[in-house]
Write a structure and sequence with these properties.
alpha+beta; 2 domains; 32% strand; 230 residues; 4-stranded mixed β-sheet; 6-stranded antiparallel barrel
C-alpha cells in the first residue's frame, strides 16, 4: 500500500545550502526564517490558537537527499563520520520516505506565514505538517541516548577585523542578527567529522545573500576571513 502526501507550505530560510546548517534545531537561536503556507492553510482559521504556543514541531521533507535505494545503516557525524549504525538509531538526513522533524521557536503567526527561529531547515524545504510542542509530553526527564547524551562541544569563532566590519554592514542591511548567526553555526564545527582541516584550507557557505569564508586555525578555533555578497 502506498500513500501520497502534499506539502502544506515551504520554508523560507537563512540557509541557502546544506553545509553549515546546525545538525539539530535550536542550537543556533539566531537562525531565522518563515513557513509560507499554501491554500487552504493560508487562512486565519488554520493558525487560530498559535498565539498561545511558543514552539512548534515542523514535519518536513528532506527534499535534497531523497533516494531510490533504502539505507539500512548510516554514518552520523556525532560518531566521527566513520562508524555505522542503524538508520533508525540516527537522525541522519537519509531517511525512509525522506521525512524529518524539527522543534523550533514560533516568533509570530499571521495568515499565510509562520515566523520561526532556531531553525535547521534549508531554504525551500517542503513542510508536510505542523504540530504544537507540548512540554509535559515532549520533554522526557527519564529519557537517555548514549550516542548523543549532550549537546556537541562548541569551538571558538574569531574574526579578522575587516570580516567583522563586513558582517556588521550586511547585518544592518538585512536587518538580521547575521553576526550571531555566523558565530552560532560555525561554533558547531560544520566540517565533515572525518576531515582534518589545515589553516591553508578555506571553507565557505551562503547565509541569506552573503557568502561567509573561514579557516580553521586549530581543531578548536575558526577564524572568519570574509563576509561578502554571494
Amino acid at each position: 500500500m502506498s500513500y501520497t502526501v502534499t506539502p502544506i507550505g515551504y520554508v523560507r530560510s537563512c540557509f541557502k545550502e546544506k553545509f553549515a546548517i546546525p545538525r539539530q534545531p535550536l542550537l543556533a537561536p539566531a537562525a531565522q526564517g518563515c513557513i509560507e503556507l499554501l491554500p487552504p492553510y493560508d487562512q486565519a482559521d488554520a493558525i487560530a490558537g498559535l498565539e498561545d504556543i511558543s514552539h512548534i514541531w515542523v514535519i518536513f521533507l528532506f527534499h535534497k537527499t531523497l533516494e531510490d535505494t533504502p539505507r539500512l545503516k548510516v554514518r552520523p557525524p556525532r560518531l566521527g563520520g566513520n562508524k555505522s549504525i542503524g538508520v533508525f538509531a540516527s537522525r541522519a538526513t537519509h531517511r525512509p520516505n525522506g521525512i524529518g522533524q524539527s522543534a523550533v521557536r514560533l516568533e509570530r503567526a499571521e495568515p499565510g506565514r509562520l515566523w520561526i527561529s532556531g531553525i535547521d531547515l534549508l531554504d525551500g524545504t517542503p513542510v508536510l505538517d505542523i504540530k504544537p510542542y507540548v512540554p509535559y509530553a515532549d520533554s522526557l526527564s527519564m529519557a537517555h541516548n548514549a550516542i548523543a547524551d549532550s549537546a556537541p562541544t562548541l569551538i571558538t569563532v574569531s574574526w579578522q577585523p575587516n570580516a567583522l566590519q563586513q558582517a556588521e554592514q550586511h547585518a544592518q542591511r538585512l536587518q538580521q542578527p547575521l553576526i550571531e548567526l555566523i558565530e552560532q553555526c560555525l561554533a558547531q564545527d560544520p566540517r565533515p567529522a572525518y576531515q582534518q582541516p589545515t589553516p591553508e584550507r578555506m571553507y565557505g557557505v551562503q547565509f541569506y545573500d552573503v557568502q561567509v569564508r573561514w579557516r580553521y586555525l586549530t581543531l578548536e578555533q575558526i577564524e572568519v576571513i570574509e563576509v561578502c555578497l554571494a
